[in-house]
Amino acid sequence: MKIYDLKDLKDVNSYRITDLGDMKFEVTGERIEQIARMTNMQNFEATMRVYDVMKKVSIIKKIEHILNTTYKEQMSLRYFE
Known about the structure:
two-stranded antiparallel sheet, 14% strand
């Protein structure tokens, strides 16, 4: 009989958001990177599908939170330029 330990399995849907500065972000993670690699970024609808997936897994929401907390002053200054 084979025994599997589930705590050793990596969550393929997990992701990491890295703030690269100047309001640029890098999102890494096995599944989201796979979706991006399979997407024809020249196709508008396909690109919007990537954004839809990012919204469903709360990536967009977390980036908006970072923008609102870290870059709030810079965003308001750019709005008035």
